[in-house]
Structures are given as C-alpha cells and as structure tokens.
Amino acid sequence: MSYIKGYRCTICGEFFETKDNLLTCPHCGEKGILDVEYDYEALKKVLTKKYFENNKDYSMWRYAPMMGIPTDHIDEMLRIGWTPLIKSHNLADELGLKNLYIKDDGLNPSGSSKDRASGVAVLKAIESGAKVIACSSTGNAASSCACHAAHMGLPAVIFVPKRAPIGKLTQISLYGATLVVVDGDYKAAFKLSKEAIARHHWYNRNAAINPFMVEGKKTVSLEIAEQLNFKPTDWVVVSVGDGCTVGGVYKGFYELHKIGLIDRIPRILGVQSTGCEPFVVASKNHEPLKECEENTIADSIAVGIPRNPTKALRAIENSKGAWISVPDEKIIEAMALLGRKEGVFGEPAGVASLAGLIRALEEGIISKDESVTIIVTGNGLKDPNNAQKAIVKPELMEPNIEKLDIYLKGKGVI
Ligand SMILES: *Cc1c(COP(=O)(O)O)cnc(C)c1O
Ligand SMILES: [Zn+2]
To answer: What's the rounded mean pLDDT across residues 409-413?
Structure first.
C-alpha cells in the first residue's frame, strides 16, 4: 500500500493530492519543486525497529513503504543500496577523531549514489507506461540511469556535457543507452534534454525536477541510521552539486525523526569545490544563489546553476549544519589519503566529503570529539584520469632481483 499523502511545493507551501500526479507546482512553475509527504502516523505503526530486524531485504528496497514507489517489479531490479558503513580506524587516528564512519556508496551497481534515484526512476517510468526514460547529468545519474534501464529493458536517452569522464561515458554506451554528448557544459546538456523530453514525452529522470529522486536518495540516511542501530553520528558530510543528494540525506533523517526511530537529526556538512561553489557563496553573503563557473575536477559537483537549491539550503539550515568549500588540490589529497588509510577508492566528488571534513576540523566547525559519517558518493574507477593526479606513476622494473631489492629498500618494505 502507498503511504503517500500528497505533494507540497517547496516554494509556496501549497499541498496537492496524489491523484494530481504532478512533477512541479502549477503556481510556481519549474522552481516549484515538490516534496513527497507521507502519512507519518500510519508509517510509525508499521516501521518499527522490529520491522527492520525481521526484514531480510538488504537493499534500499527494505524502505519501500517510505519511498512511495510501485513494488510490482522490485524483485526484478538490480540490488541497490545497503552499501557498507565502514568504521574507520586508520583515518580516524590520522584525523584525531574517535568515531568516524565511511558510507561507501561507490559500491552500488553502477558505482555511485545515483543508483538510489535511478532505481526509483526506472520503476516509476515503467509504472507510467513510458516508452523511453531520459536524463541529463554530469555523468553518474546518466550512467546509473542507463544501467537500471538496461536491466529492465527500457530504452534510455542520456545527455552529458562533453567533459564527462571516460569511465562514465564508457558505462553509458556499454549499457546500450542512446548517448548524446553535448558540445557544452552541464547547463547546456540540461537545457537540451529538457527540450527533447518535452518534445518526445519521455519519462524525465532529471533529478531536480522529479520529486521521487529524493525519495531514492534519502535511503542513504535510512541505512546510515539503521547501520548505527538508529543512533546516527553527530555529523554527516556529503558533497553538493544540484542539491538533490543533500536534500535526500536531510529528508531521510527528518522522516526517521518524525516517525520516532531516531532522537535527533545529524548536522549536515555540505561540501563544494572552490572551483564551483554557488551554495557556499550564497550562504557566506546571505544572498540568493548566483550562477557560477563549473571549474573543478570534481565533475559530479561541477554544477553552476544548482537545480534543487531550496531542498539543499533547507537541509543545511534545518539540520544546523554548515557549508564549506575545498580546492581541487585538497580533493586529490583526500583521494590518496582515503585509499591509503582505508582501502576505499572514491572519485573526486566522492572524496570531496573527506576534504570538507578535514577543512571543517581545521576551522573548528566540527570538533574532534564529535562523531562523523562521510558519504563517498562515487567510485574512483569512474575517473581514472583524475585519480592519476593522486598517485606517483610507477617506473618500469628490469626483471632483475638486485634492482628489485634496491627499489624495495627505497620503499622501506625490506
Ligand atoms: C551527483 C553526485 C553528487 C552530488 O549530488 P547532487 O544531487 O547533484 O547535489 C556528489 N557526488 C557524486 C559522486 C555524484 O554523482
Ligand atoms: Zn508552489
């Protein structure tokens, strides 16, 4: 059964019944992005700790009653979510933290958090009878949409900016989607996809517009909370592009709090790159968001015009969190550090959370006795070219044991 009560506009606050089946608010237009609202009293009775103890579905679909999705085809889907929450020892020691957790969302089927939203999108598209699903993305929403559409036999048309990294581009084509590489930036790709979707009546997976994408994304918080026995960390750190992911992170905790499963909502640290930091600038200057350049190696958060500003701003404000930005060099350092200390390989936007945490510790925004979860939103193998900046490339070794010993001594391993 569906526990959805309806949709509320994030701008004007008006409430709409489910049967209206809206994408955005009719009064506010495209900016009037909607929130899905549930019957929380009814959910409270069903979603008890016992319910979760007895639930053997270790994927994000274990939260289906809170997601408002049709359940008919769930069993046919790839397994999304229930990614590991790793208790950090080495990295925690290095940073002087007592309680640090790493949520490795790069271990989803297509290698990023976007699978959580794409899984919902594909089910919704099937439900709506759409013949094609379409989206524009910096790369991960694209590759994940292509992945889950392929598995469910749904044709996909995917728009990406020309700078999308090679791993992501390769995934999209490999999954058999129709790939449109737009000669321009993400803004240009988004605009072209919007026109094409309207013209051809495809199912629209564009994260910002479609309110159900946040319903998928929020499962990362539901998992973090449950994996910590419903006592989430003081802080949760996540990188921000369009703002849907951070919006989902907040909504997940907000709803768990509302149905009485957690006592408090963690504070959320939203991380951007100094090369593209519209949220950070707006919050620093207390002014509305202004378009920014998209100048960072962290392509997944190179979003000059965030499409979901309201939900992102609310997430940080309502959780009493903070915004922070980090230069690309620090993102590259964080990538190497996370790999070396924990064996977790994240793409630049994925490890931006760690770089943001380090900066927040330096600035005293987060203190060392607080507990922290960093979300690694994407897998490092997606972007090998930027990952190479984080390593020293090996030289060729002559097949000679003496020479090998010299090399090993230099490395300190013998
Ligand atoms: C999409 C993405 C983000 C940011 O999510 P938004 O919803 O655009 O804010 C962060 N990291 C990775 C790896 C992503 O793919
Ligand atoms: Zn409205």
So the answer is: 95
Query: Counting Cβ atoms within 10 Å, is residue 181 exposed (0-12), middle (13-18) or buried (19+)?
Result: middle
pLDDT at 207: 63
Determine the Cα–Cα distance for residues 173 and 64; give it in Å rounded to an integer: 30
Number of structural domains (the chain) is 2
Average pLDDT of the segment spanning 108-121: 96
- Say if 413 falls within a structural domain: no
Pocket of ligand 1, candidates 33, 104, 108, 112: which has the most ligand atoms within 8 Å of its Cβ, to mutate?
112
Question: pLDDT tens across 251-303, in order?
Answer: 999 999 999 999 999 999 999 999 999 999 999 999 999 999 989 999 999 99
Closest CA to ligand 1's atom 14: 300
Q: Any idea what the CATH number is for the domain that residue 91 is in?
A: 3.40.50.1100
Ligand nearest to the CA of 29: 2
> 366 and 308 share a domain?
yes
pLDDT score for 206: 78
Host domain of residue 378: 85-111+213-390
Q: Is this prediction's pTM over 0.90?
A: yes
In a domain? residue 255: yes
- Rounded CA-CA distance 371/398 in Å is 48
Instruction: Return the best residue to mutate from 209, 289, 377, 381 for the ligand 1 pocket (most ligand atoms within 8 A of CB).
Output: 377
